[in-house]
Amino acid sequence: MSSDLVKAAYAVLLPAFSGLQLDDAVTGFLRRGGVSILLGETREEYLARAMSAERQATETAEHFHAIAEQAAQLAGGPVLIAVDQELGGIQRLHHLVPALPTSTQLGGLSADDIEKRAFETAKVARSLGVNLFLAPIVDVVTGANPWLEGRTLSTDAAEVARISRAFVAGVQRAGVIATAKHFPGHHTTESDPAIAEAHVPGSLDVLQAGIDVFRALIAAKVQAIMPGPAVVPAIDPDQSASTSPAVISMLRDALGFAGLIISDDLDAVSISRGNSVAATAVASLVAGAHLLLLSSEAGLDEVVRTIVAAVETGELRAEVLLSAAQKVRDAAKAVA
After folding, report:
1. What domain count does the chain have?
2. DSSP string, 37-90
3. Which pTM was predicted?
4. pLDDT tens track for 304-326
């Protein structure tokens, strides 16, 4: 088993955990080649779209500094430190950074005002050691969507594009990578893809308004994009967006996106679709993703062994894995 392949397999993983302490699994992950972590939230906080009172009372800037420094020391170099810091949705950094505008405030703010507010938030986040926002959410939701309820910017595509372009500009001006999610847009999903298989109905014509928002953000040089967790039958009836070669090819080839492609949570039922997390990781890499979001408790070493085995059997080309790993490492260095 090639050490370069093993290190590359660790480098393409983005393990999420809800606290500010590195457990044995994440410590080993960083020592063996991992270069990315997600400081996430609990399921209860995710559903409430707010950090708990206990978290807000106990977490400090020093905690974030310490975990960022420890991660870099373990990895022996730059590490991507990611959080969900969404406009109108989850704000993982709570009161530790200047507040972002609420959903009701955004419509009354100019693009310059939104960019300034986003810059101020990201600048402080950067000083805490955070350098990757899994935001903004740019899905143009026009129907039932229990997954994204309370987290979106507008039902109007032009307004979503206006707000999200300004947010991305401010965040990236502060030296933090912004991630537009969830490609190609989830205007409607009948169920929460975290707990059930979900689909985005409609033809390509129906999807086009949402796709055009991503096109606008690519033109605005957004540095990362996250394909979504649902199946989009108009593009690929069999695979979730995060494991679909057709969806990621549209993003990369048809829309010309050359940045970092980050999968949605591989633990989501609608992404795994009955497969193991390890097999789903391989599928996402084969499809063209660079960085794979998963739980730190998903068995990271087993996922790595499965990825390397897929290379050895020819299911996954070595150059695809090595190129994805280098893409992630380069992103970490760029925001170090």
Report:
1. 1
2. EEE---HHHHHHTS--HHHHHH--HHHHHHHHHHHHHHHTS--EEEE-B-TTS-
3. 0.97
4. 999 999 999 999 999 999 999 99
